[in-house]
Design goal:
The protein is of the alpha/beta class. It is built from 14 helices and twelve strands. It has helices at about 5-10, 15-20, 25-30, 40-50, 60-65, 80-95, 110-120, 140-145, 170-180, 200-215, 230-235, 255-265, 285, 300-315, and strands at about 70-75, 100-105, 125-130, 150-155, 165, 190, 220-225, 245-250, 275-280, 295, 325, 330. Residues about 1-10 have low confidence and may be disordered.
């Protein structure tokens, strides 16, 4: 018999399953000596294997089970201290699992993101953690399904059909607004920057809803430049068109640092003449003077959760999509004061 005929006539595990009147999955459990199969079923499958002359190809099984023990992580900005803390949390969990992390920067652009995702797939990573770039197409879930590769969204989400590890941005914004209101502030501004994505929308919406809850004007949302030095130069924009905010909540701590410099140039004393709250509470919040009150989003914890979700997805690909949301906490320091002392 020729090699081609042998290949054509080779008994498969599906043949064994049909002969034993069980599913292919059950037959696979038997050949892998799984204790999950009952004795009667095991005997029936083993008898079918003997009758058909089935030979378990261990080499092929090893190839199917082979993993690279690497995971890819794609973030939009490696210069932001927040992402450094996020990656630190991921790395600790990845190390503990005996894996290696490959980090890629999307530059917050969908074309570059698509390119780095393709490279990670070519490198044979076991899974990917993705902080989606602003403007990521809505068909991300269908693409991931075609890849047959475990993927977890972190910080930002494009679809509910893929695992997501994030933070309750709206609750964090509510904490900030409520604290300022408790100090007597009513003219509260929200300074935003950067590309528009799910986290952007959730923070803006959280600010507006919190302001409405206290019957305050929700429309004081001011956009500032992306670079810290440019933010300082544009601090006057917060006071344009008759606006005189007594307190400012910032999209993140980078915006707070930029505005702090701008307020200094304007002769305003933070924590006395104007109150300032950051968001994310990265390490630099303690280094600023006065120390910055900021909403902590615990980036290390988000990183840990994202890795945990990915490892579970790798082990159990059929799990339903999950969403792990971390709580926020307002860390009160020195950059806010009661309105009466402003």
């Amino acid at each position: 018999m020729s090699r081609q005929d042998q290949k054509r006539n080779k008994v498969t595990l599906l043949d064994v399953a049909k002969h034993a009147d069980v599913s292919r999955a059950t037959a696979s459990l038997v050949v892998r000596k799984s204790p999950l199969v009952g004795a009667e079923t095991r005997e029936r499958v083993e008898a079918a294997m003997r009758e058909l002359g089935y030979v378990y190809n261990m080499g092929a099984a090893r190839l199917r089970a082979e993993r690279s023990h690497t995971i890819g992580v794609v973030v939009p900005n490696l210069t932001n201290p927040f992402f450094a803390e996020l990656l630190g949390g991921m790395e600790a969990s990845v190390d503990a699992a005996g894996l290696v992390m490959i980090i890629a920067n999307s530059g917050d652009g969908p074309p570059r993101q698509a390119a780095v995702l393709q490279r990670l797939r070519e490198h044979g990573v076991d899974g990917i953690i993705l902080c989606p770039a602003a403007g990521t197409p809505d068909d991300l879930a269908s693409k991931v399904s075609d890849w047959k590769l475990p993927v977890v969204q972190a910080l930002r989400h494009v679809t509910d059909d893929i695992d997501y590890a994030g933070v309750d941005y709206a609750a964090g914004m509510e904490e900030a607004v409520e604290y300022l209101v408790s100090l007597g502030h009513q003219a509260i501004c929200f300074a935003v920057h950067g590309p528009v994505h799910s986290a952007y929308h959730e923070r803006v919406q959280g600010f507006r809803e919190s302001m409405k809850r206290f019957s305050l004007k929700p429309d004081l949302v001011i956009r500032v430049p992306d670079r810290v030095d440019q933010i300082a130069k544009e601090a006057d924009a917060l006071f344009a068109q008759g606006r005189v905010p007594s307190a400012v909540i910032c999209f993140n701590d980078l915006v707070a640092h930029g505005l702090a410099a701008g307020f200094y140039d304007r002769g305003l004393r933070i924590g006395r003449d104007i109150s300032l709250i950051g968001f994310d509470d990265v390490a630099d919040a303690e280094a600023m003077r006065p120390r910055l009150t900021s909403v902590s989003t615990s980036p290390s914890e988000i990183g840990h959760n994202a890795v945990a979700l990915l490892l579970e997805r790798i082990a159990q690909p059929s799990l339903p999509p999950r969403c792990w949301i971390s709580a926020t906490k307002l860390h009160i320091r020195d950059s806010c004061s009661p309105l009466s002392s402003s």
